[in-house]
Design a protein that fits this description.
The complex is a heterodimer of chains A (about 270) and B (about 325). Chain A has about 270 residues and is mainly alpha-helical. Chain A contains eleven helices and no strands. With about 325 residues, chain B is of the alpha+beta class. Chain B is built from eight helices and 18 strands. The two termini of chain B are about 35 Å apart. The chains are: A mainly alpha (about 270), B alpha+beta (about 325). At the A-B interface, helix 7 and helix 8 of A face strand 6 and helix 2 of B.
Chain lengths: ~270, ~325
């Protein structure tokens, strides 16, 4: 068996073409959407020259501005609330005195990730109407906070588990009380995971359509729900323009998350 | 200083029976001494250390530090600092911030903190490393920062959990004398946990030998080496020949313990009587010493270690002898 080379997946024939194809599949639609956002024609599929006019139209559209404002305010509130709850929850699960039921609790918290979103959306709607709660934005903030918790919790819990308890034992051994231990040792070490969890929560909240669709009412429309409404009247270049803005915001966020993560890496 | 009275600890596991890590252990550790808990892994030495530090609570028994019962005190209220096996340096703080941490938590004034940090850095010979992060230090340097951090608040007791196990041999030897020096200079009681009997013999004022949750013997290194009171202690500390009494024509219910360096092997043709006769089965040259393995006529096997050594060859019939006062008789 002398001449036979061992199998090496890096030298699979056609690997680079295949990889390129996957990237095309991923990003070509986005690219086309962005390009046509700068199209001066009203028709989405015919190029008629470069123009910012759809961005201007979006900026001047009060309904879009209101929807975007709602989305951002909901995302901010949901991010802060869910990250705080998730941090406390992760600490309780990983450091608490809970002896049994730890994995059951984790599974219960992570369940919304696997339950079909439509089910969550409908139950949330039924829950609010059962309680007779019709508070528009506040309902949305509560609903978003709840479904953001597992997204924020998982990275924080994983980080706590990786850290182990020895650093916190060292802190206690050196006379730190619980609160100062948290502020001086646990929190700084968790910060990269908390930022990752918060960014996940923010993006998930900003993105959400189904639950927002069910829970929102007149005056509390979020951007994805509004865009869906516009689409029913036909895809206009304005949709491309808003989507491009959303895309840019997301890219800025992800880049920021990566930078924060890099600066906080100690090893 | 530290008074441990019939302390037991069992851990509850999810399915199996509780694990008994310590069984009614009683110990007294004196002021200013270098005390070592020595034993193989799983003997309960680390558990005992964690009970003294306050990371675990005993299932029963009393621990007193400087006269007061510490049962109700969490780790942050005990005058005890720990050097962790993994060092557990705070990765997000500089060396100086790590060392200052304990004093800061005690709300010491800034001027005192600065002074103590400087002192501590000097003590472990790391002046000039104050602003480094732990990740920028070698293992040996991290180890010394961990010691400095634990000493800076001037605790009454310093606990060291296998502090040298992650260092290579040469560094380990250096740190042994370094720790010994720090203990003498500071006058703080050191309690060291180790599985390395050589390390224990070299550093300690007194040693407690432990096995499966029990303290078998407590004493000075020489005392434990010369007068092992238990077969396990005899075997674990240094090298020992454990000879069944029957092999020497004595009480079969006893085991005779003799160190290899105390056994003299001489050719049977010399006419000496000795304790037993046998044949040389192996000869190992160790540089300054020579190690002879002898199979006695009654079947037991023993090792003799001697300087220079007689001109013997494998297969020679020999007589083994030793002074009566170097042997120890233990019950089987």
């Amino acid at each position: 068996m002398t001449g036979a080379k061992p199998f090496d997946w890096r030298h699979t024939p056609g690997l680079s073409a295949y990889t390129a194809l996957i990237f095309v599949f991923f990003y070509a639609p986005l690219l086309i959407l962005v390009i046509y956002a700068f199209n001066s024609s009203r028709l989405v599929t015919v190029w008629a020259g470069f123009s910012f006019k759809w961005f201007v139209a979006v900026a001047n559209n009060n309904s879009i501005r209101d929807a975007a404002f709602n989305s951002v305010i909901i995302a901010i509130v949901a991010t802060i609330a869910s990250t705080a709850i998730a941090t406390a929850g992760a600490l309780a699960l990983e450091r608490g005195r809970l002896r049994f039921g730890r994995s059951a609790a984790t599974a219960l918290i992570a369940m919304p990730l696997v339950v079909p979103e439509i089910v969550v959306a409908i139950t949330t709607l039924i829950f609010f109407s059962g309680l007779g709660m019709h508070h528009g934005l506040i309902n949305l903030m509560i609903a978003h906070t709840v479904f953001c918790i597992p997204f924020a919790l998982l990275p924080i819990q994983a980080r706590l588990r990786d850290m182990g308890g020895t650093l916190e034992e060292a802190g206690r051994d050196l006379y730190a009380d619980e609160w100062r231990l948290f502020r001086r040792v646990t929190l700084p070490l968790l910060l990269p995971a908390i930022s990752a969890g918060a960014i996940m929560a923010f993006v998930v909240s900003l993105d959400d359509f189904l639950i927002s669709m069910m829970v929102s009412s007149a005056g509390s429309t979020t951007l994805p729900v509004y865009i869906y409404g516009m689409m029913r009247l036909g895809v206009t270049p304005e949709v491309n323009a808003i989507s491009t803005i959303l895309l840019a915001v997301s890219i800025v966020f992800v880049a920021a998350a990566l930078l924060v993560g890099r600066r906080n890496r100690f090893a | 200083m530290i008074d441990i009275q019939s302390v037991s600890k069992s851990f509850v596991t999810r399915d199996a029976d509780p694990v008994h890590a310590l069984n009614e252990v009683s110990l007294e550790i004196y002021d200013n001494e270098f005390f070592t808990l020595l034993g193989p892994s799983g003997c309960g030495k680390t558990t005992l250390l964690r009970l003294i530090a306050g990371f675990e609570a005993p299932s029963s028994g009393v621990i007193r530090i400087a006269g007061s019962n510490v049962a109700a005190l969490p780790p942050q209220k005990r005058p005890v600092n720990t050097v962790f096996q993994s060092y557990a340096l705070f990765p997000h703080m500089s060396v100086a911030e790590n060392i200052a941490f304990g004093l800061e938590m005690q709300n010491a004034p800034k001027s005192l903190i600065d002074e103590r940090v400087r002192e501590a850095l000097e003590m472990v010979r790391l002046e000039g490393f104050a602003t480094r992060r732990p990740a920028q230090l070698s293992g040996g340097q991290q180890q010394r920062v961990a010691v400095a951090r634990a000493l800076a608040p001037k605790p009454s007791v310093l606990l060291l959990d296998e502090p040298l196990s992650a260092l290579d041999l040469k560094l380990r030897k250096g740190m042994q004398s370094e720790l010994k020096r720090l203990q003498r200079e500071t006058g703080i009681t050191f309690v060291l946990v180790t599985h390395d009997q050589e390390e224990a013999l070299a550093m300690s004022d007194r040693i407690a030998v432990m096995r499966s949750g029990d303290v078998l013997q407590v004493g000075t290194p020489r005392d434990i080496y010369d007068n092992p009171q238990d077969r396990f202690v005899a075997d674990f500390i240094g090298e020992s020949n454990l000879l069944p009494g029957a092999a020497l024509g004595r009480d079969p219910a006893k085991t005779i313990v003799v160190r290899p360096e105390h056994i003299v092997v001489s050719p049977a043709s010399d006419g000496a009587r000795g304790h037993a006769r046998g044949a040389v089965s192996a000869i190992t040259f160790l540089g300054s010493d020579t190690l002879y393995e002898v199979v006695l006529e009654e079947g037991a096997r023993l090792h003799s270690r001697s300087r220079g050594g007689a001109a013997l060859a494998t297969g020679d019939m020999v007589v083994v002898d030793w002074a009566r006062d170097v042997e120890r008789e233990l019950a089987n």
